[in-house]
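Hey,

Quick one before I head out. I ran the complex with calcium ion overnight. Inputs first:
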Amino acid sequence: MKPTVLVVEDEAALMTLLVYNLESEGYRVLQATDGEEALLLADEETPDLAVLDWMLPQLSGIEVCRRLRARPATANIPIIMVTARGEESDRIRGLDTGADDYITKPFSTAELLARVRAVMRRIRPALTEDLVTFGDLTLDKVTHRVRRGEREVHLGPTEFRLLQHLMEYPGRVFSREQLLDAVWGTDVYVEARTVDVHVGRLRKALNGSQERDPIRTVRSAGYALDETYAA
Ligand code: CA
């Protein structure tokens, strides 16, 4: 479950460089060469972060940013704007439109990667840190240990990945299909109800007889971690 970065850039050479560097850092990269493609990909894949070029053919980067912010499904995707223009007014306009950070061309890839890491850490700490917590649940991605309070919870590998995915996006509702893609992978054929079986096992392992269930079943939609549980 690598964090996914959407790169929107119409210069092929720069795209190649960004993709190479981001993939080397362990990100999964989605590529769009214009604004329409970017909006489609963002809708379909809900990336964890977008690196968005300001100067794009047809739809400008600013317009893409504005539209991403206007749609509920993509409103919270962190955005780093990339521009050749260094004027302060552009910078302010970019941040006004809802970009989270800003980088000016030419930049070093090391600088961009540092920005990406910083934004990821700030906005999705659960994706970059080894230890993820939610209420009294703690999940260690390195040792693969899970605790509920003081109690150690023993999970199978699938239940572990399922819980990790839910904990990385607390409160977000995932359909069975989305969970299949994220936990089992897109190249495996598994029936949707398999997800229900593994959620059942996960619940059984997590919840003692008197304990509250941190997983919420959302009718006809899927599953989520119950945000009121950690509140
Ligand atoms: Ca461009």
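The chain has ten helices and eleven strands.

Talk tomorrow,
K.
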